[in-house]
Design brief:
The chain is an alpha+beta fold. The chain has helices spanning 3-14, 36-41, 74-81; strands spanning 17-18, 26-28, 45-53, 59-68, 85-86, 91-99. The model is unreliable at 3-21 (pLDDT under 50). GO terms for molecular function: energy transducer activity.
């Protein structure tokens, strides 16, 4: 995997900014898979997502706030964030996932 992509994802995942619960502590983070067609085309971009964490620490809902370019990285970002887990407590968060080669 490309180092700059891994670094960008690590930065993005480390920047989980809770919208309401300052106590969101990540336990498991899954990196998004770079879409093969975007990689072949050399496409880079980002996806901003908001997510809800249930009281058990599982991500209950994910929504895309913005993405550039559109319809390229959203599915990969949502799929990854849905697999994240947090310490029990619940809350809401927001994060930007960057996709770069």
């Amino acid at each position: 995997m490309n180092r700059s992509f891994v670094f960008a994802v690590a930065l993005a995942l480390g920047a989980v900014l809770p919208a309401q619960a300052a106590d969101l502590k990540p336990v498991k983070r899954v990196e998004p898979q770079y879409p093969p067609e975007a990689a072949r085309a050399g496409t880079t971009g980002y996806v901003d997502v908001e997510f809800e964490v249930d009281p058990t620490g599982k991500v209950a809902a994910v929504s895309v706030v913005s993405a550039k370019p559109t319809r390229t990285f959203e599915q990969a970002a949502v799929r990854a964030v849905k697999q994240w887990q947090f310490e029990p407590g619940g809350g809401k968060g927001k994060v930007r996932l960057s996709f770069s080669l």
